[in-house]
Amino acid sequence: MPPRPLPSPLLHPAAARRPGAGWRDIATWLLFALAALRGVLLLAHDPLLALANNYDQVRYTACLGLYPYRPGVPPQQQNYQAPLRTYAFQAQADAVCYWTSDLLFQGAAAAGYRLAEGLGGGPLHSVRSLAALRLAAWLLAALLLQRAWRRDGRSDLALAHAACVAVLAMDPVNTLLLGGWYAEAGALFFAWFAVGLAVLAAQRATPLRLLLLALAAFGLGTSKLQHLLLPLCLGGALLLPALWRTPRLWAPLLALLLKPLFAARMLADEVAAVEAALQQDLAAGRARLAWLVSRDVSRLDAAGVRESAIETLAENLNDSVVAPLVAFALAGLPGAVLYRAANTLDAMWGYRGDWEWAGKWAARADDVLSWPTARLTAALLRPAWRPAAWARLRREARVTPSPNGGWPMGAMALRLGVRLRKPGVYALHPTARPPLALDVRRAIALAQAAGQRGVQLLVAGLLGLALLTLLQP
After folding, report:
1. Distance, CA of 212 to CA of 177 (rounded, Å)
2. In the chain, what percentage of residues exceed pLDDT 90?
3. What is the residue range of 185's domain?
């Protein structure tokens, strides 16, 4: 029987050992060991500053009835006292729960806490358990990616990846910056994993790799991304070429990447929560409004709280719904991402401080990109087909300092028949009555109806464009 021929390097790239693969393997595992060591040092640091502390974490653990243990601090108050040290299960009647893919980690940690209590443990649980879970997920994902590249004969990619994990992912400065950008640890994890899987799928698109890539993209798309746009853009840029030969996945992937750019549901829920808190007492309404606006709320009366909430709803209807829709219709997913990036950076840096210089550029870009959509939003809120009605809306819009914000806010004030003002700055429809609780509910309904009309216009425009394309000879 003739000897079995060796596998051809052309048919099986992994069968050919590349020159220098030996030292690359050694360097890869040394870098992986360095990454694990740096991760353990981050975990052991006291106080814990990385892997388990971020600004909005209270909003996510609230879904599990789990809150930071901070005697004398309301359980639902955000992480002003971070870094957190311990958790405790606490029942809250009006829990503010934000669903996010980061709950995969927090849910597993909470299950461990419940199990510990069931076995006779105490009611306080260390935040390090959550950090250890995230660190284990990072290292396991990195190990799987490295193994896949080595099996494909790409020891160079395995080495580059191990260096990035050791130098970037487990770097104390970068992990601390996550909290400063209000970003989830889970968002960066899923972005990293998705990019790595996209590179693997571009080399060899096996069913398992495509499945894991879809799951990672889902985790990325359902995380909190408004302050983590760079991984989103990078992940999207690599995901699309990787899936070029699988058109059936384009539509789900596009939906996953587009969905985080809209915040219509969350916006309506937040405004409704302000009114619900105001029904309890004025202090609760002010405290809840402070989550939405940057102005001083300490001197607002009940009418002022409602005015601020309705103004925020109207202005953000453009920023979070209409403008991203228009940008997507004109320039696809990159256009929607570009607009949301300018709008988010304006919100983050558009104040006095160290980043004021960058905020000015972001504000100018946001003003230019939002100019047409702010007027479209006003038309969707209050259709003004008569020249006199449009002229009245223009007069109201000019009252505000913003070249765009006054249009949807003025349209909302005229449509509701109420006064909307920012004390000492402007007053829209000043002769009207102040808003009541019913007007907040009406404003939410109007905003939702305007958003639906915007979607209908987008669909009608795309269908019309498709029809014209089909009718061309």
Report:
1. 28
2. 17
3. 22-41+132-261
